[in-house]
Amino acid sequence: MRTIIFSIIILLRSNFTQARHDQFYFSHHQHHHPHYYQTNEPNDLSLWISEQQVKMFSGYSMRIYAIDNGRVNPLLRDPAFDTLMPIIPPEIMSMNFTWTAGKRKYRYHFDHMMSLDEKVLLAPVISIRPKGRIPPEPKQFSVMLPCSNLTSGIAKFTLGLQITRAKGKFLPGTPLRFTLRKECNLNRGGPDPECDKKCLNGGSCTKNKICKCAEGYIGQNCEQALCFPQCMNGGNCSAPAICSCPKGYQGRYCEGG
């Protein structure tokens, strides 16, 4: 698993400007400082793989940028992007991202989310509205990658993202449309295939025909994402630890008006 994330780190960071590179350092004294640090928070549009996601794979908490202070990483526009990136393994059911518009105003539109082989992988699903305004403060969202549970294999999927400035002009380097690969394994371990189909979000059926849910999900059929503390002010737990807030509220748990 660490090989996967280190490959991503090398590929993405190899395209950063030297200025951004100089803002990071890694402490060799991991016992005391097991993090990459950023000297300044982004003041323009930035999109990165969350620290929690990277730490889950590699043991290190750090950011991997796709858009860095208004600059799109050139790797994302490489026609061979999918062959450069490692295949997303079966145990990874979603990718978590964080973004912020900083001091400027941007709007987004996920205009394309498609699986190229729905016998293996269903179309990706995002945990936020498909279009809207990028928040001024850092906020997390997820891209969920649901396997069909019909057959094993490796399927390609494509994501399309438009980002525009206040006057409708596209951010340089966008729209983005790139392809990745996801591996799915058909779970044949359950005693009842029909029961397995009822267990959602990566859950599996036990010998007692009870759904055993993947981390972050609860419910009889693993249909409900878990947020703790609970989402406030009418917010909806749209993915594990991710609250979708109603209009007029913001914050990790919709706690702020």
TrEMBL record:
Alphabetized InterPro entries for the sequence: Dev_Signal_Modulators, EGF, WIF, WIF_sf
GO terms of molecular function: signaling receptor binding
Disulfide bond is among the record's keywords: yes
Domain of life per record: Eukaryota
Signal peptide from the UniProt entry: 1-19
Disulphide bond pairs: C195-C205, C213-C222, C227-C237, C245-C254
Compartments, record wording: Secreted
Matching Pfam families: WIF
Residue ranges annotated for the WIF domain, each copy included: 47-184
Keyword line: Developmental protein, Disulfide bond, EGF-like domain, Glycoprotein, Secreted, Signal
Protein name: Wnt inhibitory factor 1
